[in-house]
Amino acid sequence: MLADHFPLLGLRVRTPRLELRLPDDDQLAALAELAAGGIHEPDTMPFLHPFTDAPPDVVARSVVQHHYRARGELGPDKWTLPLTVLSGGTVVGTQGLNAAEFSVTLEVGSGSWLGRDHQGKGIGTEMRAAVLHLAFAGLGAEIARSESFDGNPASAGVSRRLGYADDGTARHAVGGRCRTGHRFVLTREAWERHRTVDVTIDGLEPCLPLLGADGPPT
């Protein structure tokens, strides 16, 4: 099996209504089509890399390429794990986790999006809770960070509900415009105090060396 050679394909993170995993080909096609169908209002841009500012076929192709690129470049020193989110077997979005020199920093970042029909149902909070459990309980992280732009209260609301604290601002050039990003930071202690979602992880142990992780502290 391919997962014998790339064990991240066997990783599953589950909550009461969601499953997060690296997608198979059919699921990746569904994710690309979901992105092409729209993620946000046309006059907004919630992403640092404005991949949705393109025709639908280009958006779909960029989603596929991002997933292949992330798998090809993944290694212990730097990795991005773009997990596809399924609800009742239906692809609803993606929740990513990333790190650089994780074995040294014990720090992760995250990013996500949902198809528009699946927004406003609490899925965004649940899927972020899932990858935070993967980071803290599974990998042994000490810090998680997130950032959202002005005009994206949903993302900021998820961060605050899960216990992140404000961590300043940053200025970014996005599509030729200066955008203000609001930074958030979550410590292990704050994560433990705000945990409300039951999460289970399967298939993690063989993945740890690929992610530069030793697992949670004992």
From TrEMBL:
Residues 18-189 form the N-acetyltransferase domain. Pfam families: Acetyltransf_3 (PF13302). InterPro entries: Acyl_CoA_acyltransferase, GNAT_dom, Ribosomal_N-acetyltransferase. This is GNAT family protein.
